[in-house]
Amino acid sequence: MNKQDLAYWQQQAQSLTIEGRAFINGEYVDASNQETFDCISPVDGRKLSNIALCQETEANQAVKCARKVFEQGTWSKAAPVKRKAVMLKFADLIEKHGDELALLETLDMGKPINDALNVDIPGALRSIRWSAEAIDKIYDEVAPTADNELGLVTREAVGVVAAIVPWNFPLVMASWKIGPALVAGNSVILKPSEKSPLTAIKLAALAKEAGIPDGVFNVLPGFGHQVGKTLALHNDIDTLVFTGSTGVAKQLMIYAGESNMKRVWTEAGGKSPNIVFADAPNLDEAAIAAAGAICFNQGEVCTAGSRLLVEASIKDEFIEKVKTAILSWQPGNPLDPNTNVGAIVDQTQYERILGYINKGQDEQATLCCGGKKSQPVDGGFYIEPTMFSEVDNSMAIASDEIFGPVLSVITFENMEEAINIANDTPYGLAAGIWTRDLSKAHKMAKAVRAGSVWVNQWDGGDMTAPFGGFKQSGNGRDKSLHAFNKYTEVKATWIKL
Q1: What are phi and psi of 164, to 5 degrees?
Q2: Where in the chain is the domain with CATH 3.40.605.10?
Q3: Distances 71 to 40, 61, 159, 208, 215 between C-alpha atoms, Å
Q4: pLDDT digits (tens, 9 = 90+) for 429-447
Q5: Regarding the domain delimited by 6-268+474-493, which CATH topology (the fold level of the hierarchy) does it fall under?
Q6: What are the start and end residues of each CATH 3.40.309.10 domain in the chain?
Q7: Does residue 1 carry a pLDDT above 80?
């Protein structure tokens, strides 16, 4: 057997040892009251493990340890080059355990093993290594002053950071946050989603093995309304970073205001427009990209191209091309390396997506393809990628973030109408523009209110480009040097000579 065989991954899954305890002050621990919750795989509905149900007691313990080690300076005052070396070793260990982490991600969240291996693991590695390499290349400033004064502008670690990450890309989203936060000298408490906590729990052991001091990196599995709320209200958390829904992001900002005015950086929801003009360079490529933009990761992506805006003159032709492309994305066993659409994360999300599909039909949108339950693996949660045409932007399937493989096609007559439709949403995370007209591309990119705009592609960029949204898609930026703004304070020191 080899990694290209379903049987190989099924065998690996059967022999996998899964850790479900919290990680506080350098060791795995049970919840103080011994309570746990079940970790259920969406692949086949089987129970994977008991997970420690962290609550207020565990949050307070983790914050106390994180604060203590921060004040001691074991990590926070270490030379940047030393922290860099440890973080690079951390990345090496993630790479060494890549197969195990990918398998945990697939079993826990339902994504295809091929994506976990070739997208999530490399993405996490790039993030941590890039942040590590950046830290000893970020310079402070000397202000222009008179001869008898010296003005210094320096950055220092914020302190204790709570990172709350989502269930759709557990490892990558964690890496986007813990990479710059840790290497900048902060202590970090990572709270993974209760829907997919396994890779975060595994990361903790690798961090310790890499040499990150006890108390600097802690992992608290549990529910948002319990341990997450406690962290958000805690007066000794200095910064809270979050990726998830807009509703939760708003609540976290309220909690910050009710406590110590901790900095809150959010990357929230999206309803991203993918805008295709008649003069797109290649309609076949645009159609393939449009299908991938809604089918990849089962559509459980904050930047999913869930609104496809098509110029009216090519509507019928382009819809057929997209339909053909979508048909190549069909649910299969996530442990099969040939599968490109896996399982929906859990029954709650599964029923939510099916509810929106029914709502689209009730609203008189035209169902072009998909829309049905699928059962490639008994006991799992699978839905065929779905496309609706004749959609109006006021329909629920066009206005609400479904977080599933449901595509809404909306037509427009001209550039002005395309801009109005694209911006007619509370979200502003991402947008795509397909045109060979350079002037039109620039005008559209400026006019569309989104944090990322991709021209003649979907989901462009790398670690050098910041990621985040406008409007109710949040305020923070992950990736690039801009990410360090979240994890450092700027200090002005003015000296009279």
Answers
A1: -110, 120
A2: 6-268+474-493
A3: 39, 16, 8, 19, 11
A4: 999 999 999 999 999 999 9
A5: Aldehyde Dehydrogenase; Chain A, domain 1 (3.40.605)
A6: 273-463
A7: no
Can you tell me the distance from the alpha carbon of 256 to that of 236, in angstroms, rounded to the nearest whole number? 11
- Find residue 156's DSSP bridge partners: 489
Task: Give the list of residues 6+ apart from residue 393 with CB closer than 8 angstroms, or none.
Answer: 307, 399, 410, 421, 424, 425
The catalytic residues are: 267, 302
pLDDT tens sequence across 94-113: 999 999 999 999 999 999 99
Enter the tokens of residue 63: 């914050």
Give the side-chain half-sphere CA count within 13 A for 135: 29
In the chain, the percentage of residues whose pLDDT exceeds 90 is 99
HSE-CB of 250 using CA atoms within 13 angstroms: 7
Q: Which helix (H) or strand (E) holds 6?
A: helix 6-15
CA 240 vs CA 134, 194, 274: distances in Å: 22, 18, 31
In three-state secondary structure terms, 296 is helix
CA distance readout (Å), 355 to 22, 137, 352, 385: 35, 50, 5, 14
Q: Which two tokens stand for residue 182?
A: 């840790």
Please state whether the predicted TM-score (pTM) of the whole model is above 0.90: yes
CATH of domain 273-463: 3.40.309.10
CA–CA separation, 19 and 336 (whole Å): 24
